[in-house]
Specification:
Helices cover 78% and strands 0% of the residues. By secondary structure, it is mainly α. The model has no long low-confidence stretch (mean pLDDT 88).
C-alpha cells in the first residue's frame, strides 16, 4: 500500500514539475515575443532561459514517458513467443535498457564533473543543466530494475 501511495506521489510530483517548467517557458517566450514586437527590443536572457527550460522538460518528460511505458518498442513478435522465450526476450530487453541507462548515467556524471563554463546570458554553470542527464537516467534506471524484477517474478509465477 505504501508503494502505491509513494508511486502516486512521485507521479503527481513529476507531472507538477513538468507543468511548472512548461508554464514558465511559455511565459518567458510569450514575454519575449511581446517585447520584441510591441516594444521593439528583445530580452537577452529569454532565449537562453527558454532553451534551458526546454532541456529540463525533455529529460524530466522522458522519466514520465518511461514510467508510462510510452517510449517506442517492438513487442508484436515478443508477445507471440512461448512463455520461456518470452521471459528470455523480456530479460534481454531489460538488460539492454539497463546497460544504456547506466552508460548515460556514467557519461552524465563525467560531464557534470568536467564542465566548468557558464551560460552567456544568465551566467548559470552549464554543469547544473547537464545534471538533468544523470538524474533522469538514475530515475529511469530504478524504474527499469523494478519493472524487470516484477516482470521476471510475474512470468515465473505464470509458468508454475
Amino acid at each position: 500500500m505504501l508503494g502505491k501511495r509513494l508511486y502516486a506521489g512521485f507521479d503527481l510530483s513529476l507531472n507538477a514539475i513538468i507543468i511548472a517548467i512548461f508554464s514558465i517557458m511559455l511565459i518567458v517566450v510569450g514575454l519575449n515575443v511581446l517585447c520584441r514586437y510591441l516594444l521593439n527590443f528583445s530580452l537577452g536572457w529569454a532565449d537562453e532561459s527558454a532553451r534551458l527550460l526546454f532541456i529540463l522538460m525533455v529529460f524530466i518528460g522522458s522519466i514520465g514517458a518511461h514510467k508510462d511505458k510510452a517510449h517506442f518498442s517492438f513487442d508484436i513478435f515478443v508477445k507471440k513467443l512461448p512463455p520461456q522465450l518470452y521471459i528470455a526476450a523480456k530479460l534481454v530487453a531489460h538488460s539492454i535498457v539497463i546497460y544504456v541507462l547506466i552508460s548515460m548515467l556514467v557519461g552524465g556524471i563525467k560531464t557534470f564533473i568536467l564542465l566548468t563554463n557558464k551560460t552567456p546570458a544568465l551566467g548559470i554553470p552549464v554543469k547544473y543543466i547537464y545534471l538533468a542527464i544523470p538524474l533522469s537516467m538514475l530515475a529511469m534506471l530504478v524504474m527499469t530494475v523494478h519493472t524487470a524484477i516484477y516482470s521476471i517474478v510475474k512470468c515465473r509465477n505464470q509458468l508454475k
